[in-house]
Amino acid sequence: AEFQAAPEMVIASSSPCACGLYGVLGYKCVCSDESRAKRRMRLRGGFFDRFAIRITLPFPGKDAAPLDGTRETSAVVRERVAKARTREFERSLGAPQGFGDDAKRIPLDRFSLVVRDHARAVAQTIADLDGSELVRATHLAEAIALVGSTERAIAS
To answer: Cα separation of 77 and 72, whole Å?
Structure first.
C-alpha cells in the first residue's frame, strides 16, 4: 500500500482477544485459545514489525486511582517533545550525539542485531526527551527494556 502522508509516529492499540478481557484480573475471558492465537498471528508480520516499541499496559480495573495532579501537563510534555525533535533534527544535519562512557560499557553484543539497532535509536530518543547531550546508561537500559519486551512479544 502507498500512503499520502509520512507520519513520524504511529500509535496503535490492540487487545489480546476479541472480548478484551484476557489476562485482566477479576474478569473472565470468553474467547477460545484458538481465537486468541488467530488474533495474535494476524498482528504479526508486516504490520507488527513496523513498530519499534510495543508496550503492554495493565488494565486499570475498577479501583484505579484518579490522576493526582503530580503528572506532567500536556503543555510541559509538548515543550519537551519539541526540544527533543529539534535535537533529533540537528543530529540529522550532522551534529553527533555520542554515548557516554557508562553507556559504552553495556554489552550489547549479547542481543540480536535488530534489538541492538532498535535499542540505540530508542536510547537516542529517550536521551533527547531527557534533555541529555549524551546517551547515558539509564537511557540505554530503558531502551533495551522496551525493545527487549517487544522482541519477547513477537516471539510469544
So the answer is: 7
Per-residue 3-state assignment (H helix, E strand, C coil) for the chain: CCCCCCCCCCCCCCCCCCCCCCCCCCCCCCCCHHHHHHHHHHHCCCCHHHCCCCCCCCCCCCCCCCCCCCCCCHHHHHHHHHHHHHHHHHHHCCCCCCECHHHHCCCHHHCCHHHHHHHHHHHHHHHHHHCCCCECHHHHHHHHHHHHHHHHHHHC
Between CA 71 and CA 66 the distance in angstroms is 11
Q: State the cell numbers at 79.
A: 515543550
pLDDT in tens, 41-83: 877 766 666 777 777 777 666 666 666 666 778 898 899 999 9
pLDDT tens-place string over residues 26-42: 788 999 999 988 888 87
pTM (two decimals): 0.62
Q: What are the distances in angstroms from CA 72 to CA 67, 125, 126, 143? A: 11, 18, 16, 21
How far is 134 from 96, CA to CA, in rounded Å? Answer: 9
